[in-house]
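#struct-help
A.M.: can someone run this one for me? Single chain, 301 residues.
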Amino acid sequence: MKKLFAIASLLVLASLVLAACGGGASQASDLLGAINERGYILISTDPNYEPQSFLNTEGKRASDTKCPSDTLTTAEMQGFDVDVAIAVGDALGVETCFATPGWDLLTAGNWADKWDMSVGSMTITTSRQQVLDFSVPYYYTPAVVAVAADSGFDSLESLAGQALCAGVSTTYELWLDNDMEGLGLPESSIYAKVPAGVTVVPLDSDQECAQSIASGRTDFVGYVTSGTVVDANLAAGMPVVKLEGVVFSEDLAAAFDKASTLTTATLLAKVNETFTAMHKDGTLSALSNQWFGMDITQAPK
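D.P.: on it. C-alpha cells below:
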C-alpha cells in the first residue's frame, strides 16, 4: 500500500510540474486553433521599414501582455503593416505580437514554427510561392530607383556601370541581378530594364541603403526600393532624389509557411476574409492615406 501511495504521489507531482512548465500539448488540429488556444498570434514584420513598420521608441510594453518575452507588442511597433497585422489579431479575437527575423529567413520558408505568418510588405512571386502561401494582396507599390542627391545621376540609363544597393533577398535585388525568372513577376508588371554593368551591393534591408547614403557611405550611388520608402526618406530629410519612372510594380500580401507543422489553410482563409472586408469597408484605404498620404490599396488597372 505504501508503495502504491508513493507511486501515486510521484504521478501527481509530475503532473503539477508539467502544468507549471506549460506542459500539456495543444489539442488544436490546425494553426488557427492553436492561436485561439494561446490567445495571441505571432506575426513577423520589419522593425526598420518606415512607414510600413518600425519601432515605436516611446511605446511601453504592457505588464499583462500575452506576448512572449522575446517578441514585441503592439505598443512597441508602428506603421502601415503593423496596423494591418493588428487588424488580423483583432479579427481573430487575440493579441497581436511581433517577431522580427531577417528578410532572407522569411522568403526562404521553413520557419520551424517560430512565427505564425508574415505581414511585411512581401511581394507575391512565383519563386516564393514554392515555399510560401500568400493571402489576397492588401496593397500595391511601385519599385523605384533613388540616388544620392550629390551624385549627379538623373536617369536610369545614366547609372550604367555604377553600384546600386538593395535589401538582400528582395525583389529589388533580384531585379538588379537581372534575375527575371527569380523575380517571378508578369512581364506586364516590369517597366524598365536594368542599366548595363550594374554592381549590386546587398544590405540587410533596403531602408539601410538610404541610411548608409545619409551617413556618408560612398561605395554605391543609389538604391532600389518601394516608392513609399523613398517618399519617407525624402520626408525625413535624407540627401537623396527619386529618379523619374517606375521600374516594376508589386502586389503585396501576407505570407504563410508551407512547411508549418500545423495546417495554415483555415488561418489563410480567415486572413483573406479579413483583408477583403478591409478593402470593402475602406479600412485599408484609410490606413494607406494615414501612413503614405495616398491610397495604394487599389489594384493597378
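A.M.: thanks! The chain has two domains: 30-139+252-292, 141-250.
D.P.: also worth noting: The domain at 30-139+252-292 is CATH 3.40.190.10 (D-Maltodextrin-Binding Protein; domain 2).
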